[in-house]
Amino acid sequence: MHQLVTFLFTFIQLQTQIIELLFLMLVGKNFTPKADTPIDKKYHKLTVDPLPILGPLPITKIYDYDKLLMDFKLKHNKELKPIKYRGKNIPPAHLTCPYCGAPHGYFYDNNGGKGQYLCKVCNSTFFPFNPSKDTVIHCPFCHCALEKIKERKDFDVFKCTSMNCSFYKKNIRLMSPDQKKLFAKEPYRFKHHYIYRKFHFDFVPLSKENSVLPKVDLSSIKVSHHVLGLILTYHINYGIPSRKTAALMYDVHGVKISHQSILNYTRAIAPIVKPFVDGFEYDLSDSFCGDETYIKVNGRWHYIFFFFDAVKKIILSYNVSKHRDTLNAIKAIDSLLSKLNTLPDNLNLITDGNPIYLLAQQFFAQHNINFDVTQVIGLSNEDPVSKEFRPLKQIIERLNRTFKGNYKATTGYGSEPGSVANVTLFVAYFNFLRPHSKLDGNVPAVIPKLNSLEHMPAKWLTLIKMSEEYIKSKQPA
C-alpha cells in the first residue's frame, strides 16, 4: 500500500510538471493580466539650483592704471611709454583695459588680429567683445566653468566639479555624522555639487505662435441643431458612450444615427470650441494646482495634464499626451500662464512630487518667467508643507475623479484625435455649463447669454455659435 501511494504521488507530480510545460508553450511566459492603472514608480528626489552665469564672467577692475605707471617709474627710473603702432592690427581708439583702465596706446595685438589684446601696463589679456565660440557656463557660486556630464532626452546636465565651491562646501558641512559615513562609502546617493540643466526644447513661452486658429467648417454635421445639442448633452455632460448615445437617440427621440457619426461630430466641434475656451477672459484667483491623470488611447496609456483654479473651479490646462515628461509639463504651465493678465510676484503652483514640474520651473526661469512650485508628496502629511497645501492637492484629485466619472464608461478612446476632442468638450462643459456646489450652484465661468437659456441643448448650440464668432474675430480680415 505504501509503494502504491508513493507511485501515485510521483505520477501526480510528473503530471503537474507536464501541465505547467504545456501551459507555458500555449500562453508564453508573460501570462499576466494587464493592469487597470499605469505602474506607479517612486519619483527621484530632485532639487533645482539657481541659474548659472552664461557667457564670459564679468571683469572687475583689479588694478589702478595711474598707480601702476607710478610704480614702474619708481622701479625703472623712467616712464612707461605708449606703443607706436606700425602694423595693420591697430586697437580701436575707444578701447580701455578692463583690468586697470589703461587707455588706447598701451595694447598689443596678442593673437594676430583675432581680437585678443595684451595690456602693457598690467600685463593682462582680454577680449573687447565676446568670442564667437560656444557660450561658457559658469557656476554662480565659485565662477568655475561647468562640465557637461550627461545627455538626457530633453536636456544636457552640467556640473560644477570644483571641491572649493562654496555651494559644495556648505552642503558637506550640513551633513549629519551618519550621512558623512554613508557619503564616504556611497557618494552617488547625495547631491552636493551645483547642477544646471540646459534644455533642448524649441518652445517659446507665452507666445501667440503656440496656438493656431482652425477653420470653421461644420459641413460634416448632417443633423439638425437641436439633435446636435441633444447628442452633446448625453455624450459629454452625462458621459454616456457613443453607442449608448446612439441607442438613446433612437429609443427616446426616434432619431436614427450611428455611434461613429457621434464621434465624428465631437471631433468636428472640439477644434472650434477650443480657442474660445483657451482665450476666454476668466476671473481667476491666485490659487492654482496641477496634476496628471491617465487615460487609455488605442490600448496604450496617455496622460492629461490638468491645471485648475482651486477657488474659481476653472480648468486652465488640459494637455493630452502619450508622454509624462518635462515638455508636456512646460506646455501645461504655459497654458495656465497665458490666461493670466499679469504674472503675480508671489505665484505658487501646487503639484505632486513629479520632478518634471521643477524642471519646467527652471525652464521658465531661463526665460525670465519666475514662479514657485510647491510639491505635496505622498498620501500623508509627513512634513509641514504637505500639511499646509494638502487641501489644494485634494481639490485637483477631485477634478480627476470627476473627469474619470465621464471617462470610465467609454473604457478608453479609439484614437488620439478622439481623446483630445472629448477632453476639450469636457473642459468646455465643466467651465461654462456645469453648475458647482461650491459656487452656490453657479457655473465657474458665467456667461449671461448662456444662463438665460432654459435647456442644455440650446446652451451647447449657443456656445458653439460664440466659438465661431470668436474665431472669426481673431482671424485677419
UniProtKB/TrEMBL annotation:
InterPro entries tied to this protein: DDE_dom, Integrase_cat-core, RNaseH-like_sf, RNaseH_sf
Q: List residues of the Integrase catalytic domain.
A: 267-452
Q: What's a BP term from Gene Ontology annotated to this protein?
A: DNA integration
Q: Which GO terms describe its molecular function?
A: nucleic acid binding
Return the protein name.
Transposase-like protein
